[in-house]
Amino acid sequence: MIITNKQLTKNDFEQITKIWLDSNLEVHNFIKKSYWLRNVNYVKQALLKAEILAYKVEDEILGFTGVKEEYIEGLFVADSQRGKGIGSELLAELKNQHDTLKLFVYKKNQKAVNFYLAKDFQIFSEELEEETGELNISMFWKK
Q1: How far apart, in whole angstroms, are the C-alpha atoms of residue 17 and residue 102?
Q2: What's the rounded Cα separation, in Å, for the pair 26 and 23?
Q3: First vs last Cα of the chain: how many Å apart?
């Protein structure tokens, strides 16, 4: 079931933070672990301000997405749940709620780039992220 910020508990936010960290460490292993660890507290605060959709079964968060205005700040699915359609369901719900969506994805994360391209996102530009030294691809979707 997809739920929103208003339905999330403190434990849910802890699970979301863990999924965020674990996913980034695994999928973005080309970026130093210290970068992700250094940003955990920032992300906890940002999550409180973002529009969140979480995929929850019983008491377990299996995936989530955070959006601020029309910008997708992240779409994450627990490792054991990837490939089961959870990310697609969360993205479909975002598309129902928004006319335009934008995001950045690391160029080296080709699996994510391909996922968004398959979901009708288009590449807008590429730019170097100074803090990580990695190329980011800017993508957008319009209804």
Answers
A1: 22
A2: 5
A3: 24
Integer Cα distance of 75 and 139 in angstroms: 14
Paired with 45 in beta bridges are: none
- C-beta separation of 62 from 89 below 8 A: no
H-helix or E-strand spanning residue 104: strand 100-106
Distance CA 48, CA 6 (A): 10
| Dihedral over alpha carbons 99, 77, 132, 126 (to 10 degrees) | -40
How far apart, in whole angstroms, are the C-alpha atoms of residue 51 and residue 128?
A: 27
Q: Quick check: 87 and 115 in contact, CB under 8 A?
A: yes
Per-residue pLDDT of the chain (143 residues; tens, 9 = 90+): 898 878 888 899 999 999 999 999 999 999 999 999 999 999 888 888 889 999 999 999 999 999 988 999 999 999 999 999 999 999 999 999 999 999 999 999 999 999 999 999 999 999 999 999 999 999 999 99
